[in-house]
Amino acid sequence: MILIKNQDEIEQVRAACRVVAEVFREVEGEIKVGISTAELDAKIEGSIRKLKAQPAFLGYRGYKHASCLSVNAEVVHGIPGSRRLAEGDILGVDIGALLNGFYGDAARTYAIGPISRQAGQLLRAGQECLELAIRQVRSGNHLGDISSVIERHARKCGFSVVRDLFGHGIGRSLHEDPLIPNFGEAGAGAELKPGMVLAIEPMLNAGGSQVLTLSDGWTVVTADNQLSVHFEHTVLITEGDPEVLTK
């Protein structure tokens, strides 16, 4: 069931999303050559708690960290650790916050110093896919309109979309209905209605779409070891233009 939020619930989700947006602003300057992913995760957790919220991912299904930090061929759910960022890396940063019983969720992929031409093109394509998808988050459109525009633009740019992982609804739970694939047919799926809140998250690979989960049970990587990017915003469907809550 796709939940329609009332005005009070929307305000609560909006507040949680503001925390996520502020955490990104606070930690972006720390995302640079030499920092370890564990050190960055600690800064993210500290920032979330300073804002009187809780890290949404910490304890989720046994996960032990405040953020997911995915490097290069890691698609999503990368576990923070001793790895230090190096020039030429790309880093996917996924942050969730829980505030007063409601969730916000967003992800961005960053260039660490100068990166390869292919990596730069992949980052731009991922950002563009998210922007194009958000334009489709309008009352009267369908889930397939979001999914299809992501897939079409990724292919136009020469990249593939991950088909085994999805965007999702969000609110009182971190993951709610509906699942939102990054591929599909325009006009298909559930109709979008005001009050729905969706976490739209394109995941693009430089190579094939196939992914694998490592033995740690969390880290998802590209099967061909090529680069991957992840971008995500939490978006509210209104009577008019979509409202990007994590912007």
Topology:
Elements: H1 7-27, H2 37-50, E1 54-55, E2 67-71, E3 74-76, E4 90-99, E5 102-111, H3 117-135, H4 143-156, E6 160-161, E7 167-169, E8 176-180, E9 197-200, E10 203-205, E11 211-213, E12 220-222, E13 228-230, E14 233-236, E15 243-244
Antiparallel strand pairs: 1-4, 2-4, 3-12, 4-5, 6-10, 7-8, 7-9, 9-14, 10-13, 11-12, 14-15
Helix pairs in contact: 1-2, 3-4
Walkthrough of the structure:
- This protein has 247 residues and is an alpha+beta fold.
- It has one domain (7-244): Alpha-Beta Complex (Creatine Amidinohydrolase), CATH 3.90.230.
- The protein contains 4 helices and 15 strands.
- The strands form 4 sheets. A 5-stranded antiparallel sheet has the order 8-7-9-14-15. Strands 1, 2, 4 and 5 form a 4-stranded antiparallel sheet that branches.
- The longest helix is centred in the N-terminal third of the chain and has 21 residues, at 7-27.
- The chain is globular.
- The model has no long low-confidence stretch (mean pLDDT 98).
Low-confidence stretches: none
Structural class: alpha+beta
Order of helices and strands: HHEEEEEHHEEEEEEEEEE
- State Rg: 17 Å
The CATH architecture can be given as: Alpha-Beta Complex
Major β-sheet strand ordering: 8-7-9-14-15
Distance between the termini: 27 Å
Q: How confident is the prediction overall: mean pLDDT?
A: 98
* Coarse shape: globular
CATH names the topology as: Creatine Amidinohydrolase
Count the E strands: 15
CATH-assigned homologous superfamily? Creatinase/methionine aminopeptidase superfamily
The tally of structural domains comes to 1
Number of helices: 4
Helical fraction equals 25-40%
Largest sheet: 5 strands, antiparallel
CATH class category name = Alpha Beta
Quaternary assembly: single chain
**Share of β-strand residues:** 25-35%
